[in-house]
Specification:
56 residues; three-stranded antiparallel β-sheet; 1 helix; elongated; Phage protein
Length: 56
């Protein structure tokens, strides 16, 4: 398995777009979720790591 891409600080719409695209190619995606508290509101940001599985 080889890491081919990493994208940090995505919002939910961006994350869904990347997941859809990478899923079409059959890549394994790892998502980590972070949050920030700002003015009493919690916002979530996502980090995405993409892996290609070797068929050897």
């Amino acid at each position: 398995m080889k890491k081919i891409d990493a994208i940090d600080n995505l919002d939910r719409e961006e994350l869904e777009s990347y997941l859809k695209r990478y899923h079409e190619f059959g890549y394994l995606c790892e998502v980590t979720i972070g949050h920030e508290d700002s003015y009493g509101h919690r916002t979530y940001r996502y980090n995405l790591a993409v892996y290609k599985i070797d068929d050897e």
